[in-house]
Automatic annotation (TrEMBL):
<dbReference type="InterPro" id="IPR050789">
    <property type="entry name" value="Diverse_Enzym_Activities"/>
</dbReference>
<dbReference type="InterPro" id="IPR012338">
    <property type="entry name" value="Beta-lactam/transpept-like"/>
</dbReference>
<dbReference type="GO" id="GO:0016787">
    <property type="term" value="F:hydrolase activity"/>
</dbReference>
<dbReference type="Pfam" id="PF00144">
    <property type="entry name" value="Beta-lactamase"/>
</dbReference>
<dbReference type="InterPro" id="IPR001466">
    <property type="entry name" value="Beta-lactam-related"/>
</dbReference>
<feature type="domain" description="Beta-lactamase-related">
    <location>
        <begin position="35"/>
        <end position="413"/>
    </location>
</feature>
<protein>
    <submittedName>
        <fullName>Serine hydrolase</fullName>
    </submittedName>
</protein>
<keyword id="KW-0378">Hydrolase</keyword>
Length: 420
């Protein structure tokens, strides 16, 4: 079966085909709703929206629960979600669009455009009060940013001395400093790297720096580039960097898990950042979107760079991005420096902006070789399976994403329903 053209508007997302007609057993696929409904019914989640497609057709689009517990406002197809690190996939596409235009090679040193990243230091030993560093033996190159092998990290990980130095500099889960992206990059460049570039995998601000690279090379701010080159062409009219007053009623409330009961409790301080225009356009976590909008982005990926006659990337580029680029074909389990990531590690490689399943057996989760994906801090997730011509998305708002096994369970329930 060939991929259908996308008939969906940017503000609506309805099931477009009987799931039996695209290789699903409808009764088996229907197991998704009651399974995830239990998370809402027992208070662990406020609500969710799950979408599954095959061959470009929506086989399942289900909402359940509320977007805000006190008001009881239901989750709807136009609910606005903080997608956090699912922004990384958009930024990676933006960078690779510039790559296709010949602006850089993946092996280029980023200091060519961002001179603050010349003469880097790498943490060797010592405490936060007296860290010992050594010179970087390898510069950060563009492919290091795309694969999270740069040595840059996140302050909120709380796994290393370098993470602590990030927090001390004001870079934590909640930003303590009102810096724009250029100023933030200058600060990160002054901090030591967690490891020598290219020698390990470590989750961090690499994609934010990649966003700054997009700005410098294109001559546009990241929001301008996204709007002109990606969002408007794909008709992603609801994707934005912050929620204005007119759209506030559609925004889902951000929740955390109560440490004793596990029930969803509001996170008003962190959640409030979505309602003011950001100073820093964070290419690693800045966007807010709807299921309908991100559906269009995943369909572009599934169609190898094209949707509804608009081509952002060439097929060869997309295939190249979704191969494992870790040195020696390593998986994250053997190559990671440790710490939190929006993925399991065993049998998982990493491409240019996406995790890639090399072998689903070690993680003991039913899935498909070649599937690529990522997720966000508030438990949102997406994947694209080019072999089965399948996509799936999960939207909810629970921090952290590791609290409940939502993503492996969704994979389990989607693939058990696939019968052709």
């Amino acid at each position: 079966m060939t991929l259908a053209s996308s008939p969906h508007s940017a503000t609506n997302l309805q099931q477009t085909i009987d799931s039996d007609h695209v290789g699903f057993d409808a009764k088996r696929l229907a197991r998704i709703r009651p399974h995830f409904a239990r998370y809402v019914d027992d208070g662990r989640l406020a609500g969710w929206h799950i979408v599954v497609t095959r061959y470009g057709q929506v086989a399942l689009s289900e909402t359940y629960g509320v977007r805000d517990l006190p008001s009881g406002a239901p989750v709807e197809t136009d609910t606005l979600w903080r997608i956090y690190s699912m922004t990384k996939a958009v930024t990676s596409v933006a960078a690779m669009m510039l790559y296709e235009e010949g602006h850089f090679e993946l092996t280029d040193e980023i200091s060519r455009w961002l001179p603050e990243f010349a003469d880097l230091r790498v943490y060797a030993k010592g405490s936060m009060q007296a860290p010992v560093t050594v010179p970087a033996t390898e510069p950060i190159r563009v492919w290091h940013l795309l694969t999270h092998t740069s040595g840059l990290t996140y302050g909120f990980l709380q796994e290393s001395v370098v993470d602590g130095l990030y927090r001390a500099a004001g870079f934590d889960l909640e930003p303590e400093r009102d810096l724009d992206l250029a100023a933030a990059c200058a600060e990160w460049a002054r901090l030591p790297l967690l490891f020598q570039p290219g020698t390990k995998w470590g989750y961090g601000v690499s994609t934010d720096v990649l966003g700054r690279l997009v700005e410098v090379i294109s001559g546009q701010t990241l929001d301008e580039f996204f709007a002109e080159r990606i969002l408007r062409p794909l008709k992603m009219t609801d994707t934005r960097w912050w929620v204005d007053e007119a759209s506030t009623p559609r925004a889902a409330t951000l929740y955390g898990a109560h440490p004793q009961t596990g029930k969803a409790v509001p996170m008003p301080q962190l959640g409030a950042h979505a309602f003011t225009a950001p100073t820093m356009l964070a290419g690693g976590h800045g966007l807010i979107s709807t299921a309908a909008d991100y559906h269009r982005f995943t369909q572009m990926l599934l169609r190898e760079g094209e949707l509804d006659g608009v081509r952002l990337l060439g097929p060869h580029t997309l295939r190249f991005m979704t191969r494992n680029h870790l040195p020696g074909g390593a998986d994250l389990d053997t190559f990671s420096a440790g710490g939190f990531a929006e993925t399991t590690m065993e049998g998982i490689g990493f491409g240019l902006g996406f995790a890639v399943i090399e072998n689903p057996v070690p993680s003991k989760t039913l899935s498909s070789v070649g599937q690529y994906y990522w997720g966000g801090l508030a438990s949102t997730a997406f994947w694209v399976d080019p072999v089965e011509q399948l996509t799936a998305m999960l939207f909810t708002q629970l921090v952290p994403s590791s609290r409940w096994p939502l993503r492996p369970q969704l994979r389990q329930l989607v693939y058990q329903a696939l019968i052709d």
